[in-house]
Amino acid sequence: MKISKIEISCWRSIVHEKIDFNDLMIFIGQNNHGKSNILSSILFFFGEIGLQDIDFNGENTELWVEVTFSDLNEEEDITFKKYVTSAHTMTVRKQATKTEGFVYHGYIQEPVEDWLKEDRINDFKKRSIAVELPLAEYLPSSGAISKALFLRAQEQYIEANMPDLEFNNTLETTNFLGLKNVAAGSFGDLFFIPSVKSATAELSPKGNSLFAQLYSKVVNKISETDSDFQDAKQNILRFSKILNKHNEDGSVNTQRPDDLTSLETLIDGELDDWNTSVDIQITPPNVDDIFRVGANVVVDDGVKTDIDRKGHGLQRALIFALVKAWANMLKAERIASPSGNREASKATYFIFEEPELFLHPQAQRKLFSLLVELSREENQVLICTHSSSFISLNHHKSICIVKKDSVSNGTKVLQCNDDIFNDNERKNFNLAYWINPERSELFFAKKIILVEGPTDKSIIPMLGIKMDIHKYDYTIIDCGGKDSMPQYIKLLNKFNLSYIVVYDKDHQAHKTTPQKSGSDTASQLIENDIKTGLGSSVIFVNDIEEELGMTSDSGRSKPYKAITFIDDESFIFSTSLKEKIEIIYS
Predict the structure, then answer these.
(1) Contact at 8 Å (CB) between 451 and 480?
(2) Any idea of the CA torsion for 446, 44, 358, 395, to the nearest 10 degrees?
(3) Who wins on pLDDT, 187 or 427?
(4) I need a labelling partner for 46 at 20 to 30 A (CA). Which of 116, 183, 403, 564 fits?
(5) What single-letter DSSP state applies at residue 462?
(6) What is the CA radius of gyration of the chain?
(7) How does pLDDT run across 356-381, given as a tens digit for each residue?
(8) Are 399 and 415 in contact (CB under 8 A)?
(9) In what order do the strands lie in the sheet with 474-478?
(10) CATH class of 435-584
(11) Cis amide prior to 542 (ω within 30 degrees)
(12) Which stretch of 129-133, 199-203, 534-538 has the lowest confidence by average pLDDT?
């Protein structure tokens, strides 16, 4: 079972938003735009966090988070039978009010035909009516038709005619599965690794830490298969019984050590005036717990110490190692027992908040590769990040750009669930794109400035600074040439990102007529792809060096010479250049 869609209403900064889910989800965006609020809404749905008044958006007194699950297995189909659709999906809503707390409701797929609705059985179960219905063949040929018989006939008819029937999805008014609160783990196991997390806590052998769960699985397996371990458990149980005053059948325990009886007698003597006596009773301990209490993890990186004495980078790496180990153990269990008896879902969800913290760039890229691999092993991985190392166009459908342009509209998510390029375009774009991986920054920018090459990328920010209009949340992307610009424009259009395209007219005096014509064709392709209301263009005549007033022998396409030129105190902006830089930074 996996999440296929989430719909959120009135949760913190989110007024109303729908998000399509993949096995890998990458939430990015500027600070204070609502990335953490999306994650917290998921944690709220799964019962990982409680509800507070500040969770309600604005003045709203009601909120809800609705999750659609897909890829249900046979066990999940049975467990959630009432809610499973013909497409093997299930949608559950967790809704809350400020005064009444929260409750879960499921959507029920109900046939449009009244005689197939469970709550209308009494209107149709009379034999004279029922025998005229299409489901008559599933009813007994004689005798009274009970509600149970008619219900079974409905179910059989629906199952046999599912493709031809029309259904409505209706939110139930009763509690999901008839329970006031859904038990933890009903929808699978969720692990949340926040941006600030103590590795010491995750290495604790107690509680619900990752290490505790990993260690418990190992201890439980040992206790089931190791004969020495089983003998130790029996010896401890037997010795514990010897220490009690009475046997299990109530008879006096003659094997009890005299020292323990003497201790009771000594205490009884002091309580004689109170007409009171004591009985020291021994409850056998859980041997598995004994091994947990005594467990301690020491990290050896040349010096053996507790993890809290190590650097933050190693601490984070160890947490991720625990996550990977947990995933591998789950994978091994699935292979060993593909169909167990567990009623709860076997789904596993990992949520990582800013996994890049304390990791150098190469380690970030390696971690991203591991998380992608983790998402391919029947898990879902959610990443909230500010690092371009976790962005890959090979996973563009996983990218969710989180934006909040106004409080009234709330947090919005920009996604692209379509293919952006055809095969040839994808190949050409990847060649140009990966020459400079920092181009992934475009997904984080408030506005993108597309330029042809390194000279424009170097000079435009300097001109903006000189004019005191430069904006650091605008990102300049070197497209690697004029011919690659349409592909970048298509990408930005798909994600509804604001942009401006800055390119050269390329009608220099030394150019031939065919060269000028070719340039005009390339320019027209750029203009054809610019989406009105989303993008615009600025054209240099005939290139940025000419706009600057540099001479023809000044070394075209050499950024450092252009930088030297405009850094000179004698440099003066032309009116045309000044207007174009103002448009770029508008």
Answers:
(1) no
(2) -60
(3) 187
(4) 403
(5) H
(6) 34
(7) 988 888 889 889 998 999 898 888 99
(8) yes
(9) 474-478, 447-451, 499-504, 535-540
(10) alpha beta
(11) yes
(12) 199-203
